[in-house]
Every structure is written in structure tokens, then in C-alpha cells.
């Protein structure tokens, strides 16, 4: 391909005004410019992909969205609600795909392009995030999941066999017994709902009845269930245990990282996303990381803990899907570009360069990934994405998430006997329009 331009993350902000002018005039004469709104993860590789996937027919110009997923949704929703024709490509958190598709803001893929973005190579958990009303409305670019990261020496001292499935109860007890901690995301934000949802699904339940979830406001709320009570019991147990970290009620993806290799103490068990491995690998001998390569070898990983012993866990599913704006002046070019920036080569580069893991099994099997990551970790990630549990696939997910956060936070006040019932009542009222967030 020719006509490519080099772009780097460092110049994204400085060219924003110039890019607007190009996007405005590019469609009327000369070579069109497609605008791609990206989230901040993996900017260097995404800029390279924009260059590689630009063609003689069009160029791809990158714009940077805010860091917060909620703010990303807000900015894109405002543009699309106004029928913005310059939103050609967009990087979407999977939970926002149903809302955008239901509002007719995404142009569905059809025919050969639909087959290209959602073939049998795409892992099940990732594939479930890009369909709506039996249409393929986005393309999986990378997938995310959580495992339990831990110090091998800590688990060994507690007598916990991490080669077998472990429960949340066992992990909390082991950490408490040995003076370690358990790191989670329990601040009042989306990642806390991710934890709650996986706990509920791991006990065989759901926040909403899956058979009615696409019914929107008429979906059946099922969080007040035995599974909801089991989830609440795990949260309460950790909150009341010695294993709870000092910032438990405000914890996020980054706060517990430093507890794995503390200056003193046995370390932790931590549920967190795939970025953790490269994070610690890059911190050997530095603050917050392992003191040397030998200590890095004490980092272990295992399947997300079971909520109920004997019930397969349902690891969280995240990542990024690429949508094409329904109002784009160049929808055919935009969909062609979306196929390019999500193909196996693109997913390989994102994984190797940025630690953003593939949505395709073939990429996990590639030599490039096997050179970059331990084989058993790759297998664990692929398995977790393939068998993980997505959050409710609802056009009203933003309201669902906020309603759950408002009742389940603070985690120190969660009670199995009252919290699931209270949250079911409030969530139902919110969906019916009888309560405000």
C-alpha cells in the first residue's frame, strides 16, 4: 500500500485542529481522510496501524479519546447523537456496543466483511461483545480478561495448590493466614461492577436474565438470587478479613500493584487484567517491581477464583471493539479499514508491543506471542476469554452499572441478606423510569 503517513502519539494533540480541517474537506475533493477515535491504550501501535491500513483510496487520522471509559462514551455519544459524519471509526469498550447499536449509531458489517471480522478464529467471549439483534455491529480488536496473580511463595506457605481451581474463600483465608493481602477493584466505578458481575456469574446467576436482557427497560432483574447472595458474601468476607488492603474501598487496577513485591511482607493475591505481566517484567530492579529476575519468577498466575467451590469461575471480559459510524461519509472505506486494524497481524502487534491481548486464537498460537509471553499464561488468557462472562448486554448498561454501584458501594457495608434485594429493587425502578440515579 502507498500514500501512508507516519503518525506518533506525541503529535496527536497538536494536530487535532489541522486534522479537523482535513476531515472536513477530505470528503468533498481529493483523497478522503477517515477519522478514528481511539482510547489511550496502545497509542504507538495504533498510530502504526493507521499508517499501515491507509491506502491509495483513503488515509486514517487518529484522534485521542479521554482516559475514562465513561468519558469516552460521553464524547462519542454526543457526536453520534448529533449525526456527526466525521466519526468514521471508533474504539469502543464492549459494554457500550449494545447502546450504540440500539441507537442506530453503528453501521453493521454484512456479507464477506461480517465473516472476516467474526469468523471461527474469534474467541467466544470476544465474539459475544460485537453482535446485536443478530447483526455484526463491531469488530473485536483486542480482548481483556482477569486472572489471579500471586506470589508463589505466599501460596506455598499457606498450603494452597494453585495448579487446581481455587475459591475466593481459599484465597482470602490463605492471605490472611500468612500476613498477605488480596488486591481487587472496589472503588465506586465500573471495575467494581466487573467484580460483582463475575462473582454472580461464578455462582451460576446473572444481574439480568440473559433471555430478556435485550428487552431494554423490560429486562428481568435477577440480581436478588442465591448467586447474588454468594457474591455479596465474598465481598463481605474480604472486607472483614485481615487480607483487605488499606485502600480497599477506593482500590483500582493500579493501586494494588505495589503490594505484590513490597519491601517487607509476603506479597499478595490479586485479580487484575492482562497488562500485569508486562508491568512487572518492566519493573525488575525498580520501585514497585521485583528486586531481580529471581523474584520475578516468584510471580504466579491462575484461573480466576471460583465464587462457589466446584462451580467454574466466569472471568471478566473486556477489551476494545472497533465500530463504524452510521453517519460516515465513507462507510465502505471505514469498514474496510476496520477489518484491517483488527486483523490477526494487527492483534499480534498490539499484544507484543503493548500487552493488549488478542481476540483471535490463531494469534495466541503464533510464534511472536510465544516468544513474548510464557506459554501457560497465553493458554490461561485464551481459555479465560473463551469461557469468561460478559457484563449485561443491554442498551441501558450505563444506567445498570450506576445503579449497582450506588447500592453495593461501600463494599464494607455489603450484606448478603439485604444488598442483593435492595439493588434489585433500585435497578428495577431505574429501568422502569421510576427512580433517578
Automatic annotation (TrEMBL):
InterPro entries in the cross-refs: Bact_solute-bd_prot1, SBP
Coiled-coil region: none
Record keywords, A-Z: Signal, Transport
Signal peptide: 1-23
Domain of life: Bacteria
Family: Belongs to the bacterial solute-binding protein 1 family.
PANTHER family: ABC TRANSPORTER PERIPLASMIC-BINDING PROTEIN YCJN-RELATED, ARABINOSE-BINDING PROTEIN-RELATED
UniProt-recorded name of the protein: ABC transporter substrate-binding protein
The organism of origin for this protein: Aeromicrobium erythreum
Record lineage: Bacteria, Bacillati, Actinomycetota, Actinomycetes, Propionibacteriales
